[in-house]
Amino acid sequence: MKKLTAILFFVIPLALMIQGCTKDLDTAPEVELTLEELLNQDPDAVSGILSRLYASFALSGPDGPGSSDIDDDPGESPFLRGIVNLQDFTADGMKNRWGDDGLDQLTTTSDWDENNKFFRYLYNRIYYTVPQANNLLLVLSAVDIENKGEIEGEVRFIRALAYYYLIDCFGKGVLATEENYGTSDPLPEVDRQELFTYVENELLAVVDLLPDTNDYGRANKSVARILLAKLYMNAEVYTGTAMFNEAVPFISQVINEGGYSLDQNFVSIFSGDNNLSNEIIFPLIADADISQSYGNTTYIVNGSLGTETMTLSDFGAEEGWSGHRATKAWYGLFNNGDLENSTDARAALFWTEGHNYEMTDYRAWTDGYPAVKFRNTFYFSDSNPTSFSSTDFPLFRLADAYLMYAELAVRGASGADMATAVGYVNAVRNRSNASSISQSALDLDFILDERARELNLEGHRRSDLIRFGRFTGNSYLWPWKGNTLNGTSIPETYRLFPIPLTALEANENLTQNPGF
Fold this sequence. Notes:
By secondary structure, the chain is mostly helical. It is built from 17 helices and six strands.
């Protein structure tokens, strides 16, 4: 059994079910014992309960891949699958060909509306995780367990992370906390600024509560700091007020005090034994035997493989779903699309045999190159093919922190040094055998492209494009943007997703985002 000494997903068989998610935000977990009784009886049980809360970002439910914590499809609705769908497939680098109800609208950034089930899935997952965290915080306040402050810090981080995605994707909602837990009346709507301030204050508080280091897969000070830095880097998008200066000390602490280092080989970070990586700051854990899910990296690996053109076992997989392919907006960034003659090791992580460079038809499997960045094979030892993935999803990693610092320096943020920034960028590039750049070449355009080369398919791309002013309008076009082959302008309102109809119906205080 791999990597589960720290996070044992099913130690405590909790049926953490909420009906309607956005309606019953005070619903307590249904267990034979209350959480308070359970912890009073066995204080060590908190590790299993906390593990289950972390797992809400990667798994669908408590009883395997066919179970669901929420009243949504267990295969389609997991949190991480929502991040990939809404952050990567709506952007320039990755497209999906299945055309499932609503998925075409994501992959072509067109015809978005409140009925799209994929918006509902992520919204519901956010409002599943938040009340579970609220309930656990209330229970923790009434029991006496070891390291209670640190555990409360972890729970508050998990809640802040869920709210971060609400801020980024939907911009508004209700603010459910342990303070209003049990309120019978529908909660009032809060705007992006209020949510931003809440998450900012929570993260500032938990940095002091969390340990410097923690078990693999659990939050420490660096995890909270990098999320806080991301919040500040996107503050101008979220609130209209730039806060790049505020991001610098936190990302600097992650780099200088976190104890992380770049892996020597890029592929190892996305292999089945990537739990050995010292580059990953915060993973969403997967295990092919213990924590099976159709919504963790299984979705990325299997979805990017197809027996029509590939040998699945080469990537440690038993299933290929022939779904995801990159576009030239991603692989065209390597040596102008001449991948065969590129020295950059990252350019080799696209499957070209049997596939066309141009994505003339996004529904055709052979149009566009599948990305084989994520795989089930182990890097440091032998492994057997599996149907589910054991590859952890690196939600935050050091290379991202390096590129964040470099962006802050280019933007002129106080305390960020350009010479240091160039060194960080070249460390990322040289790791993959890409050539070094000079300080004069380091500008915002280069940073955006380098983030695509390094971080695409890791849940950042849509947010990056919005922060750089490239997502909406026609200043930057990519294949199938606006549902046209060569791309067309999309409205500014697409910088947010519509509030799902089910949420609007559940709470009369919620209003729809403009343009939908």
